[in-house]
């Protein structure tokens, strides 16, 4: 039977008047959280998903703070279904998928529920998505600021999108074959943790036929898809490491390189049940 355990957070100054939470209760599943529960922490990250592992990586850069990550899913870093790009579809409906579904759709006479796969794994949905690496539009991001999120706009966010990934230069002949010769090579060499690449080889006729078809229809995009105005069809990046041909995602990019940090602990197969607030 799974056991419940308490994880505590170090007291924080009440001078600000904020209502602070000081502990959470978790139910341990496949992994033993006993060692994690015995330590008092500065931060507790609930959910080791796409953003949770980024935060864990950044916070634990400071060796003076203790950071645990509590993740309901398992660690699939060595699972070939996660690592091998072509096998991503096999994860749908598995234990690595929360298995969410829509309500029955009216257009199908109430008979069809559409699956909405979301990652239940270390790395979250970045562990089972289809590797498509495309930035949102300026309009979408600027809408956040219009809704009240001050300074959350395209101009502020764009440098961070560049910071998150790496794209190395490739052969100019392949660029032309994929129709990505518009890529600004001076900006292509970046040093972000997520490794990206263009999928395609010179011997494959499909990419060229694909973009030429859209060109003939007037639906092809001839500009930079990272400009924030991606309108039309284009060859997009994939979060696939070009050297080892494996998925590059939050767990492999942000967690694996820092597993030796003594102040960072990751507990998988553990569900957070309750958050307790300090009423003082």
Description:
Helices cover 23% and strands 17% of the residues. It has 280 residues and is an alpha/beta fold. The strands form four sheets. A four-stranded mixed sheet has the order 7-10-9-8. The radius of gyration is 22 Å and the shape is globular.
Write the layout of secondary structure elements.
Elements: E1 4-8, E2 21-28, H1 34-37, E3 45-46, H2 50-59, E4 67-70, H3 80-83, E5 100-101, E6 115-116, E7 132-133, H4 138-146, H5 154-163, E8 165-167, H6 172-178, H7 185-188, E9 194-198, H8 206-216, E10 237-238, H9 250-255, E11 264-267, E12 270-277
Parallel strand pairs: 3-4, 4-11, 8-9
Antiparallel strand pairs: 1-2, 2-12, 5-6, 7-10, 9-10
In whole angstroms, how far apart are the ends?
Answer: 34 Å
Q: Which band does the percent of strand residues land in? A: 15-25%
Rg for CA atoms? 22 Å
**What's the number of helices?**
9
Shape: globular
Q: How are helices and strands ordered from N to C? A: EEHEHEHEEEHHEHHEHEHEE
- Give the fraction of residues assigned to helices: 10-25%
User: Which stretches of 5+ consecutive residues score pLDDT under 50?
Assistant: 11-21
Defining key terms:
280 residues; alpha/beta; 3-stranded antiparallel beta sheet; 9 helices
Question: Could you give a quick summary of the protein structure above?
Answer:
By secondary structure, the protein is of the alpha/beta class. It has helices spanning about 35, 50-60, 80-85, 140-145, 155-165, 170-180, 185-190, 205-215, 250-255, and strands at about 5-10, 20-30, 45, 65-70, 100, 115, 130-135, 165, 195-200, 235-240, 265, 270-275.
């Amino acid at each position: 039977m799974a056991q419940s355990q308490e994880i505590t957070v170090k007291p924080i100054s009440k001078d600000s008047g904020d209502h602070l939470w000081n502990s959470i209760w978790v139910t341990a599943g496949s992994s033993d959280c006993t060692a994690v529960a015995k330590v008092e922490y500065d931060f507790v990250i609930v959910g080791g998903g796409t953003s949770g592992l980024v935060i864990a990586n950044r916070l634990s850069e400071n060796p003076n703070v203790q950071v645990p990550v509590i993740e309901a899913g398992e660690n699939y870093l060595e699972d070939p279904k996660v690592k091998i790009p072509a096998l991503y579809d096999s994860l749908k409906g598995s234990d690595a998928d929360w298995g969410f579904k829509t309500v029955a759709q009216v257009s199908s006479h109430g008979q069809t529920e559409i699956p909405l796969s979301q990652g239940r794994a270390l790395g979250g949905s970045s562990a089972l998505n289809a590797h498509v690496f495309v930035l949102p539009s300026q309009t979408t991001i600027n809408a956040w600021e219009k809704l009240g999120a001050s300074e959350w706009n395209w101009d502020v966010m764009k440098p961070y999108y560049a910071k998150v990934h790496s794209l190395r230069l490739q052969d100019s002949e392949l660029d032309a074959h994929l129709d990505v010769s518009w890529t600004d090579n001076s900006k292509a060499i970046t040093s972000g943790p997520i490794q990206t690449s263009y999928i395609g080889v010179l011997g494959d006729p499909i990419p060229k036929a694909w973009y030429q078809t859209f060109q003939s229809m007037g639906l092809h995009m001839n500009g930079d898809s990272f400009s924030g105005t991606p309108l039309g069809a284009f060859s997009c990046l994939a979060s696939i490491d070009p050297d080892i041909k494996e998925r590059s995602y939050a767990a492999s990019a942000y967690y694996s390189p820092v597993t030796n940090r003594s102040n960072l602990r990751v507990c998988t197969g553990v569900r957070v049940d309750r958050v307790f607030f300090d009423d003082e």
